[in-house]
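retry 2 of 3: previous attempt timed out while embedding alpha-D-glucopyranose. Reduced batch size to 1 and resubmitted. Inputs unchanged:
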Amino acid sequence: MKVLQVSAEIFPLLKTGGLADIAGALPGALNAAGCTVRVLLPGFAPIMDDLQSASVLTELTAPWGERVLLRQGVLGSLGISAYVIDAPHLYVRAGTPYEDAQRQPHHDNHLRFALLGWVAAQLACGLDPDWQPAVVHSHDWHAALTSAYLAFGPARGRRVASVYTVHNLAYQGVFAPVHFFDLGLPTSAFSVNGLEFHGQLSFMKAGLYYADHITTVSPTYAQEIQTPEQGCGLDGLLRVRAYDLSGILNAVDEAVWNPATDAAISHRFDAKKTTGKARCKAALQQELGLALQPDAPLFGVVSRLTEQKGLHLVLAVLDGLIARGGQLVVLGNGDAKLEAAFKACALANPQAVSVRIGYDEAYAHRIFAATDVTLVPSRFEPCGLTQMYGLKYGSLPLVHRVGGLADTVVDCALEHLADGTANGFVFVDFTPQALDRAVRRALALYARKEEWRSVRQHAMQQELGWDQAAAQYVALYRHLIA
Ligand code: ADP
Ligand code: GLC
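retry 2 succeeded.
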């Protein structure tokens, strides 16, 4: 089965969050499950640089007159076949893939990402005479117009199934209505039964409305987004489409996230031999100038610093955590106020708190390896990957019971300790008091060395690899093309 995966990011070439991790791992996992996957990506500089044996497949004119080249080759770092849209005037710029250096959205994002969906639809309709996919699978709003273009596109070749995965409903790709006329879609598409959203143009809604099937990245989030609280204004449409909506839990790329083989960490370890983990902790405490106490429970945060992640709760409980002998290491960037607040905490408690503002892939690995607890108190979380990386590295996740966090973490309540399912700490109310109680629960378990070790061993041995998720995607694709 030929599958075209469409996304804006892909690890290790371009990553702003978990989307890239998934886009980087899914093709390999699907190939291993018997599919033949190619990816379609915008020609951001790191992607163009990685493209090997590339040839120009064709030159295209987008609906708004833009001339672009479509290249085909192999991504050297991943060894997967790729189509890349070569349009430097659109994709090679300062800033992130979505924002300029002043953190403002690029003025022409609607065109930059409409192009991604438009080219995906062309490929789905047989643009490459040697390779027509049976399924086109697009990710997040950046690739969401794929299914809209397919719905109105040329009925060349056979009918291709479309799958749209929501990684985060909060980022919707909403633009002023005037931009609709650039897109080359029929006027009928700008309707409540289409991609119109409160008078605006919504890429997210296009994906949700036109895709044959919608998936999201955990079963719990698939339910949550059908409620007004978490539906971001789209819960009505999602309820209408409930039969075509499912949650497939993300997984961990064990070639990248494995403490037994990880080249980024100073000492390697596994579930049975954890001496390396203690050494990683000592090395990090030393490097960061934290008190060199092997028995101080070390908490870690690796996160975008945004409203979604609930980190103001961590600030609210931090004094208590320190007073009880805990330490905290933070790596993140984003919201300027959160950055400043965490920096101030580090300044006030240099022996107990270390904060690095920035983005650093290798340092993230070292934090999971060194810490005892990974904090993920998100307000909402479609899946969340860091709690799973915490599990793999024996840094027990402490999470708010939402989305994928609820699907992956089992609290150390006595009954779960008794039946051996506990792997972390879960709080339900989104309040500092509830987080504080969970922190105290973590500290209490940490003081019971034997029990801690046994929970940690269970956490590290959990099956989190891609086999199961890949099998679920393959079953879905088969169902759709049958
Ligand atoms: P989201 O995609 O919402 O940001 P996820 O938990 O799904 O949340 O994925 C976040 C990914 O980004 C993980 O791979 C995490 O390790 C990584 N990450 C987040 N912030 C940083 C940072 N400042 N430096 C390095 N890696 C980071
Ligand atoms: C999004 C979500 C996160 C999820 C990731 C990968 O960024 O915020 O919860 O893990 O996508 O699917």
